[in-house]
Design a protein that fits this description.
diaminopimelate biosynthesis, Dihydrodipicolinate Reductase, domain 2, 5-stranded mixed sheet, binds ligand LZUJQKHR, binds 1,4-dihydronicotinamide adenine dinucleotide, DapB_N_CS, alpha/beta, Rossmann fold
């Protein structure tokens, strides 16, 4: 028996799920306590290691979150909005730290997550990398220093399997730019122009999404005015980066009071 906190990984067959499994297996401070997939998925009932194409791990892929979370101190969840909202309630019942990487959450989803955080620690971020979280701080500072004669545009690029746009990261960067400018993102956001749009609205924050091939994740914040342009860019070339950030958050959350946190809290950048 070990006293390392046990982690359940949801969506284990997914791009991030498999990366999280690999990273938790080599982590010094955490152990794999369970693996979940959606009911009806091919992997359910099979050994996780064998399902991943390797040696048996002695961990069976399950489809019952309540049973799995009861045995865990943390749940790491990169799945889909409907699943994540349900997991937030169940992780809170089990008093397990819930690390949420899922993006594309609606305002209603966010409200339900907020309610679950009354009873347990939830760490949620559209991007778990140090580089992107640092970029949000830089974006906020640059936006604060510049007036609305500087147009702000956010361009993101991802692989062709991504289902949501703008990316969670682009929205984090948009929120940071809006905060720096002292405006509400909802009021100035301008998404994916097409057709006779008219001239750009002064003060708008524009979003553009590229989808292609196997791009892991690229984000650019452009500040443009007459005669000059500032471009700040982050390139992720390995999903392990997101997985390691999520594991750090799971460990960090173990001694925290119930509430909603983000990666800036985990990384000490707030
Ligand atoms: N915050 C961050 O740093 C990052 C966030 N993401 C986000 O993570 C999410 C997943 O991304 P990918 O791994 O690329 O997607 P994916 O489609 O490869 O994997 C999602 C997995 O979740 C599973 N799933 C869906 N409903 C489920 C349920 N009810 N119970 C258990 N499993 C369920 C699916 O079967 C699938 O295996 C997306 O929202 C993506 O934007 C991705 C990378 C980094
Ligand atoms: O779906 C992805 O792949 C990614 N999603 C996150 C997002 O929406 O920003 C983070 C990362 O860019 C990869």
């Amino acid at each position: 028996m070990t006293d390392k906190p046990g982690v359940v990984i949801t969506g284990v067959s997914g791009r991030m799920g498999q990366m999280l499994v690999r990273e938790v297996l080599v982590h010094d401070g955490l152990r794999l306590a369970g693996a979940l997939e959606r009911p009806g998925h091919d992997w359910v009932g099979h050994d996780l290691g064998e399902a991943m194409g390797g040696a048996a791990l002695g961990v069976r892929v399950g489809d019952d979150p309540l049973e799995a979370f009861a045995r865990a101190q943390a749940v790491i969840d990169f799945t889909a909005p409907a699943a994540t909202v349900a997991f937030a309630d169940l992780a809170a019942q089990a008093r397990a730290v819930h690390v949420i990487g899922t993006t594309g959450l609606s305002d209603d989803d966010l409200k339900r997550i907020h309610i679950a955080a009354r009873h347990a620690v939830i760490v949620r971020a559209g991007n778990m990398s140090l580089g992107v979280n640092l970029l949000t701080k830089v974006t906020e500072q640059v936006a604060r220093a510049l007036d609305a004669d500087w147009d702000i545009e956010i361009v993101e690029a991802h692989h062709n399997r991504k289902v949501d746009a703008p990316s969670g990261t682009a929205l984090m960067l948009g929120e940071a730019a809006a905060a720096g400018r002292g405006v509400s993102l909802a009021e100035v956001s301008d998404r994916g122009r097409d057709g006779m749009t008219g001239a750009r609205d002064k003060g708008a924050i524009g979003f553009h999404a590229i989808r292609g091939g196997d791009i892991v994740g690229e984000h650019e914040v452009i500040f443009a005015t007459g005669g000059e342009r500032i471009v700040i860019k982050h390139i992720a070339s390995d999903r392990a980066l997101f997985a390691r950030g999520a594991l750090k958050a799971a460990l960090w959350g173990q001694d925290k009071a119930p509430g909603e946190y983000d990666m800036l809290d985990v990384l000490g950048l707030n």
